[in-house]
Recover the amino acids of this structure.
């Protein structure tokens, strides 16, 4: 199972992932499901020391244990996790892809973008069960014009990417969760009625993605406010920039100081959405043969005019057919593993509906 996070630098992607794993750490009696960092290659049974080392390396970078914000991602990183139910009942492995935020701001600037990262983005999206779109809730409430909000939150680029992806690959089954991070930082009026006004604004900002989810029967979507720190545990200082190089840059500097023990809000529901909808989609989907999946990707590469220039460097590398075959075989293995836990669907969907506003 693969989950890909997209969001601008500073949107809180890495902090969200660490906060979710901390909330769902094994041994937490408040949650039936656990999200556990694992070895990148766990085909063989790891020693106790190896398992502990992996867990310590990950957890020491969480806010709760380190006392400061996790370091930002300066390169796209794939984090391997395992999902367990009621301790030691393994459901599946997850590849959690944390894309470097700078990739989005440079994607349409040929002089600055990294072609290898673009290749990785394309194939991660194809292989993903879920795309988690991450946006800073404060940016949605600070600016007044919708074009400003879309620009500074990264929504403009993400809306365009997902629109292109839908047009080129309309039959790919996908789940999209928009996560509004740092929800504790917005004014109280945005928090009333379970963050209704904030969620309304988020759906307006990402309206193209919302419409794609509603119009494409192969896509599901939802939106969720999240805080890794919780209310009254952060002091935020906003300083206007006076020496900005460009009006396109965010016109203020936000400094967040942790002043209390984190009390995460809604972080676990990110995983519930991802796992619940992935299981539901697999249950309802007709099985797709390897040859059909292979032909689909070959057709994507053949017909995607604008993408052909991006992926031209694939010459001399494994063929599209070989890439498609391996991707499809992995997809089949994931489905076979996950469908053993079909009985979890109702529970996970009940959890999801408690907090996530779905794009019905």
């Amino acid at each position: 199972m693969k989950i890909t996070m997209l969001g601008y630098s500073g949107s809180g992607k890495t902090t969200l992932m660490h906060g979710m794993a901390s909330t769902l750490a094994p041994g937490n009696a408040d949650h039936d499901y656990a999200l556990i960092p694992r070895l990148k290659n766990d085909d063989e049974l790891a020693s106790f020391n190896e398992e502990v080392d992996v867990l310590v390396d990950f957890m020491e970078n969480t806010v709760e244990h380190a006392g400061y914000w996790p370091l930002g991602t300066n390169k796209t990183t794939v984090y391997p996790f395992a999902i367990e139910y009621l301790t030691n009942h393994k459901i599946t492995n997850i590849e959690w892809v944390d894309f470097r935020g700078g990739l989005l701001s440079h994607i349409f600037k040929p002089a600055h973008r990294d072609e290898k990262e673009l290749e990785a983005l394309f194939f991660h999206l194809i292989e993903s069960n879920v795309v988690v779109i991450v946006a800073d809730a404060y940016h949605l409430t600070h600016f007044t014009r919708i074009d400003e909000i879309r620009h500074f939150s990264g929504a403009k680029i993400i809306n365009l990417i997902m629109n292109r992806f839908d047009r080129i690959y309309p039959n790919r089954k996908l789940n999209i969760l928009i996560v509004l991070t740092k929800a504790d930082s917005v004014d109280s009026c945005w928090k009333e009625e379970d963050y209704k006004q904030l969620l309304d604004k988020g759906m307006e900002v990402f309206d193209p993605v919302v419409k794609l989810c509603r119009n494409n029967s192969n896509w599901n979507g939802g939106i969720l406010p999240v805080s890794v720190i919780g209310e009254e545990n952060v002091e935020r200082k906003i300083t206007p920039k006076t020496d900005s190089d460009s009006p396109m840059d965010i016109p203020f500097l936000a400094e967040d100081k942790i002043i209390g023990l984190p009390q995460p809000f809604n972080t676990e529901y990110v995983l519930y959405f991802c796992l619940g909808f992935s299981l539901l989609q697999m249950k309802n989907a007709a099985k797709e043969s390897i040859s059909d999946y292979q032909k689909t990707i070959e057709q994507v590469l053949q017909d995607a005019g604008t993408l052909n220039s991006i992926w031209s460097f694939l010459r001399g590398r494994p063929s599209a057919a070989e890439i498609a075959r391996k991707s499809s075989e992995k997809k089949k293995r994931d489905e076979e593993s996950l469908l053993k836990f079909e009985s979890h669907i109702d529970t996970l969907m009940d959890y999801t509906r408690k907090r996530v506003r779905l794009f019905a």
In short: Residues 2-231+265-358 form a domain with the Rossmann fold fold (CATH 3.40.50.300). Confidence is low (pLDDT under 50) at residues 304-317.
